[in-house]
Structures are given as C-alpha cells and as structure tokens.
Design a protein that fits this description.
With 204 residues, the chain is mostly beta strands. The chain has one domain. The chain is built from no helices and 13 strands. Strands 1, 4, 5, 6, 8, 11 and 12 form a 7-stranded antiparallel sheet that branches. Strands 3-2-7-13-9-10 form a 6-stranded antiparallel sheet, with no helix packed on it. A hairpin with a 2-residue loop joins strand 2 and strand 3. The radius of gyration is 17 Å and the shape is globular.
C-alpha cells in the first residue's frame, strides 16, 4: 500500500528590532537524503520550481519516495525582530516495498535581525499520517548556529517526534508541544531544521 505523509513546521529566533531587506548573500538550501541517494536544491537553482527569492519548492522523486512535494521559505536576514525559516507543506508518498526513510533538511545563513543576547529559538511541528502500517514515525528538529555555518547545529530547541502506533486508512493528525531554546548571536547567524520522514515497515 502506498503511504502519504503531510507535515508543516516552523523555526524562528525572535527579538524585536528593526526590519531589514533580504541579503543577496543568503543561501537557502534544501537537502533530501534516503539511503545512498542525495539531492540538494539551492534557491533558484536546479530543482527549485519557485522563482521567488527566499523560497524553495521541489516536486520529484528521491529513491523509493516517488512523490516528494516540499515548500519552504526564509526571510533572511530577518525583519521586525523575527528570523524565520519554515516549511509550509511537505507531502511524501513511499511506493517501495522495503523499509526506507527520508531526511529533508533546510538551512539558510546571514540572519542579522534579531541579534544580541537571550534570543529565543522556537519550533513547532504538526502534520498528518496516512498509512495502513503500524509504527510509521517522523521527527523534526530546529537549530540556530551563531557561527553562520550552513546546516550548523550549535543550538537546538530539541527533537519533536510522532508515531502512528496503529495503521490508519484515513488521515490521522498530530501535533507536538512547541519547543524553545535561548542563544546569543552578534553579527550573522544561520538556521536549520530537519524533517525525518516515515520509516516504511512493509512485509517482505
């Protein structure tokens, strides 16, 4: 049976400061990995179907995951005291017959608004399972990196997880408790988040 998974998530560091215009030096990227297959999509590069700056949309296949639709945005360098990196929609369909997992990572650099001490990294995570199999699981984790390293992991607000204990032939929604962490950044910093998509557990 095919399985489909939909999820939305958001990551933000917040402090009220002045607004700013997006830096042309920012580098919004998405990485999709399953097994030995790796796909990297850069904002307005190959695979990005959204021409808007600061937004990536991807619709394609990655390994056993025949349908992967993602839409993520960044407001780097930040505005109105918010540095936002978020996913609007992820839809994954696994059409394989063996166990498989998919990791989707987003990262952007050169955030400068806000900066200072006691910044708050906040993350939220919710979505929908649709699978006839027990034990499908998903994870989400947010990061901020004061060294401005793409895909850096210096500070995290913690791991969100959700599991479909019993199979469901109709959509089953879930949400996890919001998470926060404090950090300091002076100058530019980076943000990242990871989605760990369902693990298929099909009989052989």
């Amino acid at each position: 049976m095919n399985r489909k998974f939909l999820v939305t998530g958001a990551l933000a560091a917040a402090l009220i400061l002045t607004s700013a215009v997006r830096s042309t030096m920012a580098a919004l990227q998405m990485q999709l990995t399953t097994g030995s297959t790796n796909v990297t999509v850069v904002d307005n590069g190959a695979g990005d179907t959204n021409p808007a700056v600061g937004e990536i949309s991807f619709n394609g296949s990655v390994g056993a995951f025949a349908t992967v639709i993602t839409a993520g945005t960044s407001n780097s360098p930040g505005a109105n005291g918010l540095a936002v990196l978020q996913t609007h929609t992820i839809s994954v369909r696994d059409t394989g017959s063996t166990a498989a997992s998919l990791a989707i990572k987003f990262s952007d650099t050169n955030f400068t608004n806000p900066t200072g001490t006691n910044l708050t990294l906040g993350s939220s995570f919710a979505g929908t399972f649709l699978s006839g199999n027990n034990g499908e699981s998903v994870g989400f984790q947010s990061y901020a990196d004061p060294s401005n390293t793409a895909f850096g992991t210096a500070v995290t607000s913690g791991l969100h997880t959700a599991t479909l204990a019993n199979g469901a032939h109709t959509p089953v929604g879930f949400s996890t408790a919001d998470r926060t962490a404090t950090f300091s950044a002076f100058g530019v910093f980076a943000q990242r988040y990871d989605h760990h998509q369902p693990v298929s557990r099909r009989p052989g």
